[in-house]
Design goal:
globular, EC 2.7.1.151 (chains A, B), 21% strand, 283 residues, 4-stranded antiparallel beta sheet, homodimer, alpha+beta, 9 helices, inositol-1,3,4,6-tetrakisphosphate 5-kinase activity (chains A, B), Inositol polyphosphate multikinase (chains A, B), ATP-binding (chains A, B)
Chain lengths: 283, 283
C-alpha cells in the first residue's frame, strides 16, 4: 500500500492530483521518474553509486531499482525510482532541505533553463550564501500539540539573509521551538550534523567525477528518543535530488563545495551557547 | 623615473598611449585609479587592509597611499594607487595570473555588467573550473635566449580544459620549458605555492568580511637563484585586483573559496613525479 509521505518539506507533493513521491510501510520511497532527460539522468546516477567510496555512499539514499507503480496523479502505472525512505522509523522528525550551490544551472543546459535558474538563484539567497533553504519542518517535544510544529513558508526560507539563517538554524534545533536554543540539546543535534558535513567536505575537495547541480543536503533528527541498534540515534545528513548531476570533466565541484563550506560556517557559528560545552577537537 | 613594468602578464599595458600601470626603481607599482566607482572601491579596500590578520595581510601588496603622477597615456597628472611592486628584485620571473571564482560579477552590479561577465565566465574556463588563467609567462634558465620564454596567448589560457590546465602548470614549473617537468625543480617551486594556497584557503573558510569578485591569485618565482635576507627565496603567492570587492554581509566568500580549492586540487594533482619525493606531511 503506497501513501503520501507525511514529512516531505520540499518538491512536488503527491496531493490534489499532482504526480509526486509515495512511500510504503517497508521503508521504501517511490520517486516518479521524470519523463525527460532528468529522469534518465537521475536513474543513471543511482546506477553509478557503487563507484563512490563506502563512507560517502552512506550519504545517498539506498537505490532499489526502478518499478512501475500506480502514479499519485491517477494516470495509471508510471515508472518510479525505488529508494530508501530516509524518514522511515521516525515518529517526530525535524527535517531541513538545503539546496547547495550558488549556481543551480549546469554549463550544457538549454538557454531557457539557464535563464530561469539564474533568476531564481539571484532572487533567493543562493547567490549570496551559496545555498538556499528549500524547506524546513520542526516539531516540538509533543506531536500531539499542533502549535509546537514550525514549518515556515518556502518563499520566506529561500531568501534568508545571513542573520536570518542563524535564527532559523537556532530555532530548528531548539528544544521548545524558541530561537534561543537549549545549548545542550542543540549541540547534541548539530554535533553529528557538523561531523557529517565535514566528512562530505573532505570528499568534495578531491572528487572529480560528478558536479551536483540543484542537489540538496537533507538534515533529519528525531524530536524525542529514537533508538537504532540499541543506541540512541543522532541527526542524519543525506544528499537528495540528482536529476542535474553532470560529468565533472576533471575538476572538483567548486560550486557545491563552496556552498557546503558556507553552510558549515553557519553551523559552526551557532550562538556560542551551543558549542561552549564542546571541546575544539569535537567541533 | 617611472617606466612600463617588464613582466606584466594580464590587464591593460601602459604602451601605445594606453593608461596602464608603471613602476619605479624603489620597488613601487603605480596603478592608475579608475575614475568610476571601481577606483574608489579599490582604494577603500586597500585602506581597510589593516583589519586583516597579519599572516593573511602578507598576501596583499603593501599599500603606500594615492599619488598624482604623470599618466602613461600622456593625459597629464592622474591619481595612482601606490603599491608594492611584487616583481621588484626579480631577474627572470615566471608569473601566472589566475582569476579566481566561477562568477566574476557581484549581486549588486548593473545588468549590463552582469551580462558581460556572465558571457565571459561561460566562454572561458571559469564556470567549469572555478577559475581562469588570465596570463602566464615562463622563462628558461637563460634570459638571453629568447626562445626559452613561453608566454601563451590570453585567448588560449582563458578557456583551458582540466587536462590542459595540468599541462600548462607542468610547463610553468619545468626547468627546461618542456611539459614533463623536472620533478625536483617543480616540487621546489610548487611546495611553497601549495603551502600558501592552503593558508589562504583556511582564511577563506572563515572570513565573512569581504567577497572578492574578479580578483586574481598571482604566482611568481625566479627561474634561477633569488636570494632574500641571505636565504634562497621561494615562489610567492599574492592576491591582486580589488576593484570588485564587496561587503560579505555575514557569509563566507564561497565563490572565491570554491575556485581556490579547485586550483589547489590541480596543484596537488601535478604528475606524480612532482610530489613523489615529498612526504604527506609536507604536501
Amino acid at each position: 500500500m503506497l501513501r503520501v509521505p507525511e514529512h516531505q518539506v520540499a518538491g512536488h507533493k503527491a496531493i490534489d492530483g499532482v504526480l509526486g513521491p509515495l512511500v510504503d510501510d517497508s521503508g521504501k520511497f517511490y520517486k516518479p521518474l521524470q519523463s525527460d532527460h532528468r529522469g534518465s539522468n537521475e536513474a543513471t546516477f543511482y546506477e553509478t553509486l557503487s563507484s563512490i567510496p563506502d563512507n560517502i555512499r552512506s550519504f545517498f539514499p539506498v537505490f532499489h531499482g526502478i518499478k512501475e507503480v500506480e502514479a499519485s496523479d491517477g494516470s495509471g502505472l508510471h515508472p518510479h525510482l525505488v529508494l530508501e525512505d530516509i524518514l522511515a522509523g521516525y515518529d517526530n522528525p525535524c527535517v531541513m532541505d538545503v539546496k547547495i550551490g550558488s549556481r543551480t544551472w549546469y554549463p550544457e543546459a538549454a538557454e531557457e533553463y539557464v535563464r530561469k535558474c539564474l533568476l531564481k538563484d539571484r532572487e533567493s539567497s543562493s547567490i549570496h550564501l551559496g545555498f538556499r533553504i528549500s524547506g524546513l519542518k520542526s516539531v516540538g517535544p509533543s506531536k500531539q500539540d499542533p502549535s509546537s510544529c514550525w514549518q515556515p513558508h518556502k518563499k520566506f526560507l529561500q531568501s534568508l539573509s545571513a542573520d536570518e539563517v542563524k535564527l532559523v538554524l537556532s530555532k530548528f534545533v531548539s528544544s521548545d521551538g524558541n530561537a534561543d536554543p537549549d545549548s545542550a540539546f542543540a549541540c547534541e543535534v548539530f554535533m553529528p550534523v557538523l561531523k557529517q558535513l565535514l566528512e562530505l567536505k573532505k570528499w568534495f575537495e578531491v572528487q572529480t567525477i560528478f558536479h551536483f547541480y540543484s542537489c540538496s543536503v537533507l538534515v533529519v533528527y528525531e524530536k524525542g528518543e529514537r533508538v537504532m541498534n540499541g543506541k540512541k540515534a543522532g541527526a542524519v545528513v543525506k544528499l537528495v535530488d540528482f536529476a542535474h548531476v553532470v560529468d565533472a570533466k576533471g575538476a572538483i565541484d567548486h560550486n557545491f563545495l563552496g556552498g557546503l563550506c558556507s553552510l558549515i560556517k553557519f553551523v559552526q557559528d551557532l550562538p556560542s551557547g551551543v558549542w561552549e560545552s564542546v571541546s575544539e577537537d569535537e567541533c
